[in-house]
Amino acid sequence: MRISIEWFLLDNMLMNLAVLVLSAALSGFRLSMPAAFAASLSGAVFALLAVSSCPVLTKLLPKLLFALVLALGLKFSNFAGYLRSLLCVLLSAMLLGGLMLILVHLQTNEVKSAFVGGVLLGSVEIRLLLLTVAFAAVLPRCLRYLRNITRIDTNKIPLKVIVDGYSLSTTALIDSGNLLVEPISGLPVVLINNCPKFEEGYPVLYSSFGSDGEIIARRAKSAKAFIGGAWREMDVMIASAPSRIGDAGAIIGSIALPS
User: Cα 28 to chain center, whole Å?
Assistant: First the structure.
């Protein structure tokens, strides 16, 4: 029986991706899509080598060792998180592998006859199922990407800031009437809700809704706004908001946005 290498790689890649999607749901970690696709593709190559030129890879130990690579497709912050990801990958592989065996058995009435040269042969319906899982895995990210591109129309944009070791990712409200700038450098000032109040920096006078005061601003080491489908660098000052900012985490003047 002839098996297309291209379809074999695609089927295994989609199966690996399905394992990672289920692992993300079980572990609570988000998928790192570039790492997930790279790990899934390497798993497909692993399977191809196992059935073509290196039968030792079909043994249990090499498969367990490869799970160490597949677990890198999830976002975790420490070694304990990695172990949790690895456990969920192994559990997901057993669950989905068992599900595939059941589906093949329901279609052929005999699982053993579905194995040819160590390869589990499924039907077109199973391939469509894998394609559906892959589509469902990437669809939310695509929708978020499109939403971020058009979010400028709602006067809110994603914002990432690093200043004096303090980092924050939030949503900033664009205010065309916010002309707050640091007088010496002339840099725009971004006000952030959860930013700590700086004891040292550049004093900036403000006036808002009849209340006047002074805030201390510091120059951001890094400030990026997501505009037009890409992260754009900004040169701005950062300060703690003197009062709570509505339903956004920060407020930024339109003069601060890159052209």
Answer: 12
How far are the Cα atoms of 9, 55, 113, 114, 143 from residue 118, in angstroms, in the given order?
A: 15, 9, 11, 9, 39
Place of tokens 């999607």: 21
Closest Cα partner for 148 from 131, 177, 169, 176?
169
In order of their start, the domains of the chain are: 5-148 (no CATH), 155-256 (2.40.70)
Q: Regarding predicted confidence, which is higher, 114 or 209?
A: 209
Q: 256 is written with which tokens?
A: 């601060």
Per-residue pLDDT reduced to its tens digit, 36-73: 888 888 888 888 887 777 878 778 788 888 889 888 88
Which helix (H) or strand (E) segment is 156 a member of?
Answer: strand 156-163
CA distance 50 to 60: 12
